Amino acid sequence: MRPPARGVCESDRAVSLREASWRIAQHELAAPAVLAPMAGVTDRPFRVLCRRLGAALTPAEMLSADQRLWSSLKSQRRMDHAGEPEPRVVQLVGSEPQELAAAARVNVDLGAQIIDLNMGCPAKKVCNRDAGSALLADETLIGRILEAVVRAVPVPVTLKIRTGIDPNRRNAARVAAIAQQCGIAALTIHGRTRMDHFRGSAEYDSIRAARAAFARALVANGDITTPAQARKILDFTGAQGVMIGRAAQGAPWIFRDVNAYLRDGHPPPPLLRRLQTEIILHHLESLYEFYGEYTGIRMARKHLGWYCRQHVDGDSLRRTLMAAEDSASQFAAAQRGFAQWTELEAA
Ligand SMILES: Cc1cc2nc3c(=O)[nH]c(=O)nc-3n(C[C@H](O)[C@H](O)[C@H](O)COP(=O)(O)O)c2cc1C
């Protein structure tokens, strides 16, 4: 096949570079790939790590709008954004417009630069109330919530939804129109309905349909695991951003790979195993520091289990790592275990 003429390549590249930067209100984002909020996963150490590896935005784990719950250690940790790169995104979940507005105000006073509203969580009840994706059944209430929160805070308010309550009641495009009308600065759509939970595959037709109703930043989400898929989904949906969740577990460098592919049109050289090991060890240290010894090693076990999936001898390494009872021996075992990667690479 003949290579395309030089001028064509250059204009293609100019287009992809232009696409790479986008905005959420006043915040310019340098690249299309963003981290998905994941309760129990996207704590501050993981968010900081993913930002370092190229995620343009790293929303925090959902926080209940019920302020009575905020004194718990879990909420206190979720509200800890010390030293986090800007813009800091706080995600709220709730169902009462005024309660959400008040929670948004307090979080802005504490330093939140974007408030994200969670209407995507599929749990039957979130904090004993119909919240999360259950709200998709009540478009009037959605409008009241969005209006109340947008009016309450001087920072951009963003919204994350699923495509509807169930496959017969997909209303992402109507919710997108409500979001547009209410001044929502960015809309993320996970291509599943509430009823789907995580079953089946995400679909992107609903996201594409919502594009026509929402003129500001649109983010496509669901089952994005490779750079080429990210490119296809951006092209198909007309979204500016792709949100990646589970594929970043054990592979936070996915943001580097996706963004480079979207920018350059080809994959970057794979990240050296030696560098992956450095990232993993640094991640462990930041978990011990953030959570302290007891919870630190437990949170580290979760991430190490995911990192082991990438390892040639993952099962036996996982067993060794899970058996470690304190952070020093867990860290040493990880250092030894993942060093094998580096040796394999050097061989
Ligand atoms: C463990 C876990 C926790 C999650 N917690 C949240 C959350 O706190 N807020 C939210 O909006 N979505 C949450 N989600 C949904 C993700 O943000 C995302 O929409 C979903 O995982 C689909 O993206 P993916 O296929 O890239 O993982 C969670 C998902 C997982 C797997």
Name the poorly predicted regions: 1-18
Distinct ligand kinds:
flavin mononucleotide
> What is the number of beta strands?
10
The secondary-structure element order is HEEEHEHEHEHEHEHEHEHHHH
The largest sheet, given as strand count, sense and whether it forms a barrel, is: 8 strands, parallel
Radius of gyration: 21 Å
Q: What is the overall silhouette?
A: globular
Q: In a nutshell, what does this entry contain?
A:
The chain is α/β, with parallel strands linked by helices and 347 residues long. It has helices at residues 6-20, 44-52, 73-78, 97-109, 139-152, 172-182, 205-211, 227-237, 254-264, 273-308, 314-323, 327-346; strands spanning 22-24, 27-29, 33-35, 63-64, 89-93, 114-119, 157-162, 186-190, 217-221, 241-244. Helices cover 47% and strands 12% of the residues.
Describe this structure in words.
The chain has 347 residues and is of the alpha/beta class. Helices cover 47% and strands 12% of the residues. It has 12 helices and 10 strands. The chain has helices spanning 6-20, 44-52, 73-78, 97-109, 139-152, 172-182, 205-211, 227-237, 254-264, 273-308, 314-323, 327-346; strands at 22-24, 27-29, 33-35, 63-64, 89-93, 114-119, 157-162, 186-190, 217-221, 241-244. The strands form 2 sheets. Strands 3-10-9-8-7-6-5-4 form an 8-stranded parallel beta sheet. A two-stranded antiparallel ribbon has the order 1-2. Helix 1 (6-20) crosses helix 9 and helix 6 packs parallel to helix 7. The chain starts with 5 loop residues before the first helix and ends with a helix. Mean pLDDT is 92; it is low at 1-18. The structure holds flavin mononucleotide. Residues 36-41, 61-62, 91, 118, 120-121, 160, 190, 221-224, 244-247 line the site of flavin mononucleotide.
